[in-house]
Write a structure and sequence with these properties.
single chain, alpha/beta, six-stranded parallel β-sheet, 13 strands, globular, 417 residues, 47% helix
């Protein structure tokens, strides 16, 4: 098996290498290729040399700046790149705050800018993968669900699965609370990437939803429960994705973001420290946990293993609904449990969505599609329409100014007329 990693110079790569080493006990890995753009030459070299020390002679490891060489004949391609690197993320986080709006990498107007900047690169890479291989693409590049909507429904490339580390962390937390294996858990979990809802939890043959909620005291995975007022969580009757705080507590989150500064600034220092460690150590440093993205490598590697072996396991991924949520259109890309069989993912039937969740799904899905149309038509008018629709977007008095500021900061990546 050949696996290509697009964004191989990422400081996440060692964790991914570790995950691939784990699955190499079950599937034969022949070659792993780390690709990155020429601007990331130094980082790629550091990660390549460190990865060689981890891999030893378990399989062949290659680095390259040639995308065609990286993906040619690949069985799986992993997207884990950030267009514009951390400087662009910093802009995504700072610019909306000028308008008292949430500045965040994947949500709101930061996610809007990130998507517009990333669409053309994803479009180019998908075409190259399609030309050079029969690979399935596993996507971690943000905004993951929005990009999966773009690729499946607008580019028409079917071998594309969006992935996020939040579901696997949620399952891990449930397994610890219920003293069971993750494979024993099934959840009615659905929504959009970074906007999902947990409605039911089953462990082996028993529903444990209410018992689990009491145990956890509605504590969210990786997020202190006090960020959500208890009365609101009880009113929802759902276990919401932590990113819902940006929607339900917008004023509080704007104030917090202004006070704390951008995550990009902190990540830049963490990455510099990690790169220094990677130059010399022969193990994955514990400092990597500060980078975020916990267990993403486990999610990616295990999905590749189960796709390759037709395992019949269930993974939570981003793909078309195809009837999983009965009152949501079949072509909506959702984050849902899927059966992994015959090298593909098949959505599992979950029944109807909660009305609150359904309203959020429809609204943000229409925003996603308007944003995609704005990119495809290079249209400022459609971009403003998308911004006005988003609940974390600007009002009519600010929409043109915010769009112009976003375009100015991303003039190397986004062109609208």
């Amino acid at each position: 098996m050949k696996i290509a990693v697009i964004g191989g110079g990422s400081t996440y790569t060692p964790e991914l290498i570790n995950g691939i080493l784990e699955i190499s006990k079950d599937v034969k890995i022949d070659q792993l290729v780390l690709y990155d753009i020429p601007q990331a030459t130094e980082k790629l070299e550091i990660l390549y040399q460190f990865s060689k020390r981890l891999v030893k002679d378990r399989f062949e490891l290659i680095q390259t700046h040639q995308i065609e060489k990286a993906v040619e004949g690949a069985d799986y391609v992993i997207f884990q790149f950030r267009v514009g690197q951390l400087k662009a993320r910093q802009n995504d986080e700072q610019i909306p705050l000028h308008y008292n709006l949430v500045g965040q990498e994947t949500t709101g107007m930061g996610g809007f800018a990130c998507a517009l900047r990333t669409f053309p690169v994803v479009e180019e890479y998908v075409k190259i993968v399609d030309k050079c291989s029969k690979a399935t693409i596993i996507n971690f590049t943000n905004p993951s669900g929005h990009l999966t909507e773009f690729v499946l429904n607008y580019l028409g490339f079917e071998r594309f699965v969006g992935l996020c580390n939040i579901p696997i962390n949620l399952l891990k937390m449930i397994s610890q609370m219920c003293d069971c294996e993750m494979k024993d858990i099934f959840v009615k979990y659905y929504g959009l990437n970074h906007l999902t809802f947990l409605e039911r939890v089953y462990v082996k043959d028993q529903e444990v939803t209410q018992t689990l909620m009491q145990k956890l005291k509605l504590q969210l995975a990786n997020i202190p429960s006090q960020e959500f007022p208890q009365v609101v969580l009880e009113a929802l009757g759902l276990y919401p994705n932590s990113y819902l705080k940006y929607y339900l507590m917008e004023r509080t989150m704007v104030e917090k973001l202004k006070k704390e500064g951008t995550r990009a600034e902190r990540v830049r220092q963490i990455e510099n420290d990690l790169l220094e460690l990677y130059r010399t150590v022969n193990y994955i440093p514990p400092e990597l946990s500060q980078r975020g993205g916990s267990m993403y490598s486990t999610a990616a590697a295990n999905l590749i293993r189960d796709l390759a072996t037709s395992a019949g396991t269930v993974h939570i991924v981003n793909t078309r609904n195809n009837g999983a949520i009965s009152d949501v259109p079949g072509d909506y890309v959702l984050e849902i449990p899927c059966l992994v069989k015959a090298g593909k993912v098949f959505p599992v039937s979950l029944g109807k969505a909660d009305q609150f969740a359904l309203g959020m799904i429809h609204l943000i899905k229409m925003y996603e599609r308007l944003t995609i149309e704005a990119y495809l038509r290079r249209s400022k008018a459609l971009a403003m329409k998308a911004m006005l629709l988003h609940p974390l977007g600007p009002g009519a008095e600010d929409v043109e100014g915010l769009l112009q500021e976003i375009l100015q900061a991303n003039q190397s990546f986004i062109e609208l007329k």
